[in-house]
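Protocol step 4 of 6: record predicted structures for both targets in the notebook before any analysis. Target 1:
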Amino acid sequence: MVVSQSHFSQRARLFYLRMLCAAGLVITLQAGFLEGVAYSNPQNATNSKSPAHNSGLKARKKFKLTIQPGEVIGVSLKANKAPLADITGELAKRLNTRIVLGPGMEKQLVTTEFVDLPLDMALQQLTPRVYVDYEIRSGAPPARVGILLFALDDPAPALNALVSGNSQAFLIEGNTEDISETQPTNEGLQVELEGNSLTVKSKKQTLVAVVVTVAHMLGVPAEIKYESAEILDVEIKKMLVEDAIPRLSPNLRLFVRADLWKSTRTPLRVSLVAPEKVDGQ
């Protein structure tokens, strides 16, 4: 069979067009494939998750807090933009104590990481001004009443922010104005205050009278929760206030505030309480 050149060219062109169409189809398919890959980007995939899944991610804690109990409490914390209120809420629960935030710290976000720091040092990692209120009594280590965390420009916390009076107690307010450093009340009672050193000389004086006089010298309230008839014969000479007051009676409680920022300790209140009941009595 003889095939003319014109007929051959026509068939060749038809074959060529079919090849181009096939190539064009491949290109289209490849473009579609690339487009599909682009939409499978992990960033876009995250947005495609269900709202419930996203809310679960947001609910995860932004911090990890570990408490090592003991005579010296150790604190470990890893936080990434975590609300300070959440951290202190968990810390208060673990320590079984109150923690109060100053106005400038209520919405503070914390990013930090430290391991096994003593509690006082750990608190200072969270905020510049740290106050800790303690109750001091005879025969026991100081008991933590609560913690206050304040910003540098916050007003000073009230003295009764954590330690407040009892409505059933007889409260006598102290006054530091116009008080000499030595105040003899009568021949049987003399109280002296030199800096943070206290001298008390009592001969046949009631414990109530001594407590009221000491609180007056310190400039703090005297809280009488128990009308003791105890007579006090004692002489304490130039002893630190925190050591002297528990020596006067096991029924006395001295509340102080430790300012970790300024490294100072300030008396807040002196309370006379009823004797503790002994088992079987």
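Target 2:
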Amino acid sequence: MVEQDARVTRSRHLITTAVIDLIVDSGLHAVTVDAVVARSGVAKTTLYRHWPSREALLADVLTTALPAQRAPDTGSLEGDLRALARGLAGGLADERTAGLLAAIAFIDGDATLDPIRQAATRSRHTAVREVVERARRRGETIPTDGPDGLIRSIAGPLFYRRFVEGVPPTRTLADRCVTRALSPTDHAAPDPAPLEATP
């Protein structure tokens, strides 16, 4: 029984490692069952014994490799956002994590992968919304464009630095992004509702 459990653990590890390597090297689209089998050396029947589909495999691996982001509680909105921004900057500075985040962020042309992207990013967005709601209850001033605006203002420059400029973002940049994001001049009023079409 112990030997069997060890084989199962080894097989799962080989498959998981193969999936991550494929994502980092070539993106989510490169992850096919045949590619994972070829790279891991594990039989297709073994893979299907643990994951019923490619989508289930991807979702499981990404959930494990990119664990849920917990909302910090430093006592202030600025402190909480700095903690989140520094965590993102640290992830983007790591080659493997950056590769996984890039694959998720730049999914294009495959609607079947949208739920995987949404699941992988949900906890990070939820963490921002949680710290904003906590700050609101404390009576702190919240930017007019709310959590979504903060996410764009903070994460956007960090992703740009990593994937456009090709430079790992630093804690200093993360702190600067938070400072700018909380500046009243950095935020516009929310977009108005679209005008109804004239008959």
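Step 5 preliminary note on target 2. Residues 77-186 form a domain with the Tetracycline Repressor; domain 2 fold (CATH 1.10.357.10). Residues 65 and 190 are 34 Å apart (CA to CA).
Proceed to step 6 after PI sign-off.
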